[in-house]
Each structure stands twice: as C-alpha cells, then as structure tokens.
Amino acid sequence: MPQIILDIALWALPVILAITLHEAAHGYVARMFGDPTAYEQGRITLNPLKHIDPVGTLLLPGIIVVMNAVAGAHLPVFGWAKPVPVNFGRLRRPKQDMFWVAAAGPASNFIQAVLWMLVASLFVSRPVEGAGEAVLAVLCARGLAANLVLMLINLIPIPPLDGGRIMVSLLPGRAAWQLSRVEPYGFFILIALLYSDVLNKPLQMAMEGVAQLIFLITGAPAA
Questions:
Q1: 63-112 per-position pLDDT tens digit
Q2: I need a labelling partner for 137 at 20 to 30 A (CA). Which of 93, 117, 152, 178 fits?
Q3: In the annotation, is 23 catalytic?
Q4: Catalytic, out of 23, 133, 183, 208
C-alpha cells in the first residue's frame, strides 16, 4: 500500500501542474486577444483548486495509476480540468484568434516538459546515486510523460479538443462549421479511440519523437 501512495504522489504533482497551467494558458491568451471572460471569473490563476475537476483531475488519473500499479495495466495517465471559459465572440478576430487561444494549452505543456527535463539534466546524475535523486528522476520522467500525453491528446483534431479548435480556425467557412458540429460528441469519440487501441501506436510514436527533441534541446539523457 505505501508503494501505491508514493506512486500516486509522484504522479499528482506533474499531472496537476500540467492541467492547471494548460487551462490558465488558454485564459491568459484569450485575455491578450480581447476576451477577459476567464479573467473576470478568476480562472487565470496558478491555484489548482480553481481548475480541478473532481472526476477528470482526481478520480480518473487516480484510478489509472492504481490499475497500472496493482493490475499491471499500461494505460496512459491523463485527465482534464474544468475548461477555462472562452467567449470566442469577444475576441478581436474570433476565427483567427481561436488558433492562438487553442494552441496556448498544448504549448504550455511542451514548455513544462522541457523544464522537467532541464531539472533532470541539472540535478539528476546518471546512473542515479541516492534515494533523493531516484525520487527526483521519477518525478521528472513523469513530468515529461504527463505533459506529452496531455499535449498530444489535446492536439487530436476533434472539437472540443484544442486540435479541433485549431482546425476550425484554419479551415474555410463551411468545412470549419461542419467540423465544429462534432463538438458535442468529441469526448465520446476520444474515449472510444483511446480504449480501442486505435491511437496507441500513433501516440507512442509521437511521444517518442517529441521526447527525443526535448532530450536534444535540454541535454537530458534518454531514459
């Protein structure tokens, strides 16, 4: 049991940071482009309590970690926060600015992944020498994994995921409208894709490719 508690704790910090900063980035960029809705509702904040969704931020990731630890499953640890409110009609150029608002979340996860690997390259020796370094090495590795999973899943071009919003901003009018109609069903489509193994290989390949780029940028050795 203590091992499971430690496992959950070492996932909790990077997952909560990844989700919190992802949502805050959306609100911050929306305000930059003319929509202060998130700011007015106090959602441009690093306080995770403002962003936590009981199911998506706590329950689901916790269940996945326990299943991985106890049952030997290999499910990706992911979750979601309460979406930051964005009124696209208040953006100065709604269709064009939607691109930057949507891209801000995944960009924040890429930056966090780089920062976790910078910490690893500066403070974790290879091979790991002590218990403290071992914990930090695991924490950094999970910071990388949590942010890459959140970034890449959000870049899938299905509304209301960020990738879907990016595609809506880039497509011409009629095609953008047709894609936006998928939004009410987007999460059901995502869950079906994730647990039917359709996305497993593409996600794994994308994670490995982006991780290699980050190792190159930071000088952190591949695990």
A1: 777 777 776 666 666 667 788 899 988 999 999 999 999 999 999 999 99
A2: 152
A3: yes
A4: 23
